[in-house]
Amino acid sequence: MADTTAAPLTTADGKPLKAALARAQSRARRRALLLVLPLLLFILVSFVLPIGELLKQSVENDYFTANMPRTVQWFQTHPAGTPPDEAAYAAVALDLKDGYTARTAPLAGTRVNYDMPGTRSLFTSTARKAAQMQPPYKDALLAADPKWGDPMLWATMRRVAPAISDDFYLAALDRTRDVNGNIVQVSQDQRIYIMLFMRTFGLAAAITFICFLMGYPVAHLLATLPLRKSNLLMILVLLPFWTSLLVRTTAWIVLLQREGVVNDILVWLGVVDNQHRLEMMYNQTGTIVAMTHILLPFMILPLYSVMRPIPPSYARAARSLGATSWTTFRRIYFPQTLPGIGAGSLLVFILAVGYYITPALVGGASGQLISNLIAFHLQNSLNWSLGSALAALLLVAVILLYWLYDRLVGIDKLKLG
């Protein structure tokens, strides 16, 4: 009887085929990993780690925890609502004495000052007197400054005692905690962040819409003109990319200011008189005009990449079947450009909400965005935690926008070229 057991398949050198295929696939995976490893490392170092540090900074601040250890310990051993006793005042006095020697008392005061403005000077001035203080420390501190008896001050110090806190996110949403620890709105004259977020998203939406209205016909011309003319038009579209952003922004300042070129032309044409020149600079108008000019190519190029492959025969076929030009555009041409509209709008909007230089130069008080306030906290006030919290909220808003686009349109339909 013949042996029906098949011999295992082998390679030319006699090795089992299955094992050889597994080794080949393993080598291919390692080769692919080595090829993308530099990109992964670049993303990790330049994107993931900075965002992780930003999120950490937005909830962590140990200025008070590290420099007022006795006071922090008293808060940990006494429940909220416990009035400060002699031991609490002694802890503060001794911490301030050590802080004055080590020059760290202003740091502790800075942390409290974030939540209760005006307290940094209290910590600094009291620390200078702490070396001469003797028990009872409560009387000594109150003699140095009566503010040490303020219950709100003690509630604020208790709140900032932990190194990890959500206070900066509350501040970024115009919220704070009262003496009892309840979340409340800040006073009316301190509510600036929500207003800035609304202004930022409102201006970004307006700029995106204006870029769409201006970019759609330009992209259509690029896609339908003869190659020689479309190349010339493409050079004009790309020309802003070859010019410094600072130069373009400064040029708009020259053009739009009260005594600028645009107002001079309007006066010469008689549109406005010399006494009523238009205020187009250092306000929202200047921000919208300058940012629209800068971001317009980011709308045109995705639209062009989608319009170029659309066959002209589709429109001719629709007209041959009796469709009007408007019906042809609305039902045949426009739906095919939706991926480009989505890509351009998403790109322009995300760039607009994060713009900093242009609003800072031409926006004035009413045209600046949340990014300008983030830069202020990181560079001037040095409240890095609040700046990080604002940046984190802006990042979350952009991610939510991306998610909403994916749910409504589908990210797989987005085309950038």
Can you offer a commentary on this structure?
The protein has helices at residues 17-59, 63-67, 69-77, 86-102, 105-115, 119-130, 137-144, 151-160, 167-172, 193-224, 227-238, 245-256, 261-269, 284-307, 312-320, 325-336, 338-353, 357-362, 370-379, 384-408; strands at residues 175-177, 183-185. It is mainly alpha-helical. The protein has two domains: 63-163, no CATH class; 193-413, MetI-like (MetI-like fold), CATH 1.10.3720. The radius of gyration is 32 Å and the shape is flat. The mean pLDDT is 88.
Identify the notable features of this structure and list them briefly.
2 strands, mainly alpha, 2 domains, two-stranded antiparallel sheet, 20 helices
Please provide a brief summary of the model.
The chain is mostly helical and 417 residues long. It contains 20 helices and two strands. The protein folds into two domains: 63-163, no CATH class; 193-413, MetI-like fold.
Query: What Rg is obtained from the alpha carbons, in whole angstroms?
Result: 32 Å
What is the level-2 CATH architecture name of the largest domain? Answer: Orthogonal Bundle
Quickly name the level 1 CATH class of the largest domain.
Mainly Alpha
Report the average pLDDT across residues: 88
CATH topology of the largest domain: MetI-like fold
Label the overall shape: flat
Q: Could you give me the name of the CATH homologous superfamily of the largest domain?
A: MetI-like
Q: Could you give the distance between the termini?
A: 67 Å
In total, the number of strands is 2
The helical percent reads 55-70%
Give start-end ranges of low-pLDDT stretches: none
Our estimate of the beta-strand percent is: under 5%
